[in-house]
Amino acid sequence: MDSKDIEIEIKVKVEKIEPLKNFLNKNAKLLGETRQIDEYFTPAHRDFTSVRPVSEWLRLRNDNGKYKINYKNWHYDKEGKSQSCDEFESSVKNIEQIKKLFFMLNFKPLVKVDKKRVLWDYKDYIICLDIVENLGTFVEIEFKGGTDDPKKVTVRMIKFLKDINVGKIQRNYQGYPFLLLFPEEAKYFQE
Q1: Model confidence over 2-60: pLDDT tens digits?
Q2: Residue closest to 170 by CA, chosen among 188, 154, 151
Q3: pLDDT per residue over 118-162, tens digit each?
Q4: To the nearest 5 percent, what fractions of the chain are helix, strand and coil?
Q5: Least CB-packed of 27, 87, 125, 144 within 10 Å?
Q6: What is the full DSSP assignment across 78-98?
């Protein structure tokens, strides 16, 4: 598998967002602000959400009128934690045609995630501040460097946040679609 098909990221809630925003505004390159509407689907013959932890997600994204299709397969350890996933993504010209194709192939809609995202580029990271409708504010950090040990990379990401003094860090391994679909099963780990 090509290293560009492997994604290493963390998704966290932080106690104090202002120190991070101040740091990024001074030290990182602002990439912009966007609204992303993500629609998740599952094949009827193999419901992705029927297993725990949910490891597969199929998504259509509308990113300010630019469309993508994305499939992720997360790799979990024995504790239900994941550091990376296989990710395959491609631009889509006509998202409505893809939805029709999904319908004809008996894919079922699962959930819609509507978020405002502000992105910064800092060294080996793309750092996003996500305000997710019905969930709140999260920080997502994605590693954009070359191949590396996912566990070591995510430890460095958490250290980066601690060094900025964001207070308590609660990490979620389940993702926005899971949190919206199954709020009673939401898990956060103190870092």
Answers
A1: 556 788 999 999 999 999 999 999 999 999 999 999 999 999 999 999 999 999 999 99
A2: 188
A3: 999 999 999 999 999 999 999 999 999 776 788 899 999 999 999
A4: 25, 50, 25
A5: 27
A6: TTS-EEEEEEEEEEES-HHHH
Q: Let me know the angle formed at the C-alpha of 138 by 1 and 81, rounded to the nearest 5 degrees.
A: 45
pLDDT value, residue 37? 98
Tokens 């566990």 belong to residue: 151
**Biggest distance spanned by C-alpha atoms of the chain:** 50
Look up the CATH number of the domain holding residue 83.
2.40.320.10
DSSP designation for 4: G
What residues contact residue 22 under an 8 Å CB cut-off, 6+ apart?
none
Owning domain of residue 157: 3-190
The number of distinct structural domains making up the chain is 1
Give backbone dihedrals phi and psi of 86, rounded to 5 degrees, phi first.
Answer: -80, 130
Residue 70 to residue 16: CA distance in whole angstroms: 31
pLDDT digits (tens, 9 = 90+) for 82-95: 888 999 999 999 99
Residue 82, exposed/middle/buried by CB under 10 A (0-12, 13-18, 19+)?
Answer: buried
